[in-house]
Specification:
This protein is α+β, with helices and mostly antiparallel strands. It is 35% helix and 18% strand. It has five domains: 95 residues; 102 residues, no CATH class; 58 residues, no CATH class; 147 residues, no CATH class; 314 residues, 2-Layer Sandwich (Nucleotidyltransferase, domain 5). It has a five-stranded mixed β-sheet, with helices on both faces. A five-stranded antiparallel β-sheet has the order 27-26-25-24-28. It is extended. The protein starts with 15 loop residues before the first helix and ends with a helix. One of its GO terms (cellular component) is nucleus. This is Integrase catalytic core.
């Protein structure tokens, strides 16, 4: 007679309690737990096989025979105990092996899948590295070579692998790649790709060290092109010095006294300037260009001379007026506009000009924009159009050989380069002229001269977590998934952290009408045995959905019939819910100190025998309803339908993609458990389950824009954006949010988050993010 074994697949931390409970139970039953107890460092001695007593020799007496008989009896008992211990140890090992085997079947990809993954990765690595990611790129190559060889792929062997590695390097470091490729063509040398990777890493480090050790002269061009020492600008504090030297702007400024006491008047002046816009250039007034743009005029800066191209290979583009601080991703006036600058030796543009940018050539490893002690690599060079003003008319000009630096804080027109084309600047009349003819008119603002000025949009109020929030009733309606008017009105007594700034009145919303059209007939059964305790009786429901972004396709609901508290889990395979239900029941026992006695189901046929046996072992009675009559399981059907409606309203209201439904459903469950209900006498399921009122001050309008501090940026990257921009899709706790981060299409868990509840996702934004990433790597 065979007995079925309950195998718990240890696929995540949620499975640990159940898996370890089974292992611990078997080990204690076999008196072997001391051998595997993870809390103890010392282990008892392993079982030792007993030695069979030898037969007596010589003159054997009756006493010898009797003694030998007792020794054989002892041996048999010891052997029996030893065999039992070894059998139990083997069974325990078999349990672990079965779990690992189940994991292997479930998760280990096939050889062909692994080969396809490695080949795709090799194709991705055919793109040349940037200066900042060269080390990472080489490490990825080494990992791919190792995996390819372990899988028997010939794509990295011999000259084929070396050619594949040197092909992207040839684009920006032909000096290194050309001799090796020539040797391969001639067959004079046999190389291994691993050796070439190691050699190139050392080559790149030595080259970078030589570039870093060079001394770059900082200079500014006069109106006539004569070089002279550059003068520091007027700082926001009113003094003439560089911004990194300012005691008010930079707490780590050189020579700043440890006991420095700021002047209150100057400090207020600097803070007001920072609040008005960017740290150095506050918001300025100006009109955005409207109407159809005229055809480009390339006369003013038609620069294609050979001497210019030749000098760029080693030029240091010097920018003296850029300063980065922590800010969100909204573009500032400086980032959207063009200023003429006498302190830069080259034209520079940022990512907000990417649609105007036409790439003409790649940047080299030694092409940088340098300001102060910081250097930022140039991505590429190309031509950019600028909408300049000539009197009341707009005129489009083309700047040639512009350095593209995506994260730069502004767009600069180099007067030094203009002078070479006989275009000069008159600082008194604010004109650019050529041959005594006015070509362009500049717009002055806050000490800068703008050739093209665009005013940045005003930044709406950004909110962060608080103990209590005062909001209009309409906004709380959005936070609580467009729940009904009576539930919103009951929030003041049912939860904490809520205040209304206006009266709660019924309001019609189009989103509610589009999402809440449904019909559900529910006939709750009167339980034969009822007790006034939470989780004494729970109901179960299973819903199938379309495949999501994480390949999940099923939703498992477990609901307490007494408190309406719901546990929701999404999963990939239908059979997964057997394990998930046991996890939830264990959580109820540990977290809520409650025992479940009845488990109501509509007779789901995939409830396996092992699962039913485990429920019976726990003393839980399964209440099976009549098949094909979901109305009998009205409680679970009604609640799961209510959560689906909430999720639908939340998704439609903020235009989120439907493939994010796992996050939306989990968030809808979170909101459901914190929403007062008439059935519960305007209390929340959370209060009935936990015994305290929930605080909801941390909750925000679902799907609103989120700005999170990016803590992974190296300290040397002063110009890189400090904020990750995403959208709120759920809560892990009262101070940890789940954010949908569009680059990479992934969900990240963050604590330091600010929200703009007036902004929501636009379907066009995915394209914009992807375009930005592509352009930053290769405009």
């Amino acid at each position: 007679m065979s007995s079925s074994k309950l195998i718990i697949v240890l696929k995540s931390s949620q499975d640990w309690d159940e898996w370890f409970f089974i292992v611990q139970s078997r080990a204690k039953k076999a008196r072997l737990y001391d051998y595997i107890d993870p809390t103890k460092d010392l282990r008892p001695q392993q079982p030792i096989a007993p030695t069979k007593p030898p037969l007596p020799t010589g003159n054997i007496t009756d006493a010898d025979r009797e003694e030998h008989k007792w020794k054989r009896e002892d041996y048999k008992e010891d052997k029996k105990e030893y065999d039992r211990q070894m059998r139990e140890l083997n069974d325990l090992s078999s349990l672990i092996e079965d779990s690992l085997r189940a994991l292997q079947v479930r998760l280990q990809p096939s050889t062909s899948t692994q080969q396809e993954f490695v080949l795709n990765k090799l194709r991705e690595l055919e793109k040349p590295p940037t200066t900042q990611s060269t080390e990472k790129w080489l490490t990825q190559w080494e990992e791919c070579v190792f995996k390819a060889r372990s899988l028997g792929l010939s794509d990295v062997e011999g000259s084929r692998g070396v050619n594949a590695f040197l092909k992207p390097i040839m684009q920006h470091d032909s000096e290194y790649a050309s001799p090796i490729l020539r040797e391969l063509r001639l067959g004079t040398k046999t190389l291994d790709v691993s050796d070439v990777i190691v050699d190139y890493r050392e080559h790149a480090r030595q080259k970078q060290a030589l570039i870093t050790n060079k001394t770059h002269a900082t200079f500014a061009a006069t109106l006539r092109g004569e070089e002279q020492p550059q003068k520091p600008p007027k700082c926001l504090c009113g003094l003439l010095h560089w911004y990194f030297q300012c005691f008010y702007l930079n707490p780590n400024a050189p020579n700043r006294p440890a006991d420095f006491k700021p002047n209150k008047k100057i400090k207020t002046q600097v803070e007001n300037a920072l609040k008005r816009g960017t740290p150095l250039i506050p918001h300025t007034q100006g009109n955005k260009g409207k109407g159809k743009e005229p055809k480009p005029d390339t006369l003013a800066n038609d620069d294609n001379s050979d001497d210019e191209q030749g000098s760029i290979k080693s030029f240091p583009a010097v920018v003296a007026q850029s300063f980065a601080t922590h800010r969100d991703s909204r573009p500032t006036t400086l980032e959207l506009s063009w200023i003429v600058d006498t302190g830069t030796t080259h034209h520079v543009c940022n990512r907000y000009m990417r649609k105007r940018f036409i790439k003409t050539r790649n940047a080299g490893l030694d092409d940088f924009v340098i300001y102060g002690n910081t250097r930022v690599p140039i991505k590429s060079f190309g031509n950019v159009t600028v909408n300049a003003r000539n009197g009341k008319k707009s005129k489009v000009i083309t700047l040639r050989d512009v350095a593209y630096v995506p994260a730069f804080m502004g767009n600069l027109v180099s007067i030094s380069k203009c002078n070479k084309k006989d275009v000069h600047m008159d600082t008194k009349s604010l004109r650019l002229y050529k041959d005594d003819t006015i070509v362009y008119v500049l717009t002055p603002s806050e000490g800068q001269f703008f050739l093209e000025l665009h005013q940045a949009e005003s930044v709406p109020a950004i909110t962060s977590a608080a103990t209590t929030r005062s909001l209009p009733a309409e906004q709380w309606h959005g936070v609580f998934a467009h729940t009904n008017y009576h539930a919103i009105k009951a929030l003041l007594t049912a939860v904490t952290g809520v205040e209304f700034t206006n009266d709660v009145v019924p309001v019609h919303y189009d989103t509610c009408s589009r999402a809440k059209a449904y019909q559900l007939v529910a006939r709750d059964l009167l339980p034969e045995e009822a007790r006034n305790e939470s989780f004494f009786r729970v109901s179960f429901n299973l819903i199938q959905m379309t495949p999501a972004f994480n390949q999940h396709e099923w939703i498992t609901y477990i609901e307490c019939i007494k408190s309406n508290y719901v546990f929701t889990r999404t999963h990939m395979l239908k059979s997964d819910y057997n394990t998930l239900i046991l996890d939830i029941l264990s959580m109820i026992e540990r977290r809520f100190d409650a025992l479940t006695a009845f488990f109501r189901t509509d007779g789901e046929r995939s409830l396996n025998t092992a699962f039913k046996a485990e429920l019976k072992r726990r003393g839980i009675t399964i209440e099976v309803l009549a098949p094909y009559t979901p109305a009998q399981n009205g409680h679970a059907e009604r609640t799961s339908q209510s959560i689906i409606i909430k999720a639908r309203v939340m998704r439609i209201g903020v235009n989120l993609p439907e493939r994010l439904w796992p996050e939306t459903v989990l968030a809808a469950t979170y909101i459901h458990n914190r929403t007062p209900s008439k059935v519960l006498k305007w209390k929340t399921p959370f209060e009935l389950a936990h015994g305290i009122k929930p605080n909801v001050a941390h909750m925000r309008v679902y799907g609103c824009k989120a700005y999170a501090l990016n803590k992974t940026i190296p300290r040397s990257n002063k110009l890189q954006e400090r904020a990750l921009v995403g959208y709120l899709v759920g809560y892990d706790s009262t101070n940890i949010y789940r954010i949908w981060y569009l680059p990479g299409d992934r969900i990240i868990r963050l604590r330091d988050v600010s929200f703009d509840e007036s902004s929501k996702y636009s379907p066009d934004e995915q394209e914009q993010y992807q375009e930005i990433e592509d352009v930053e790597e290769e405009p």
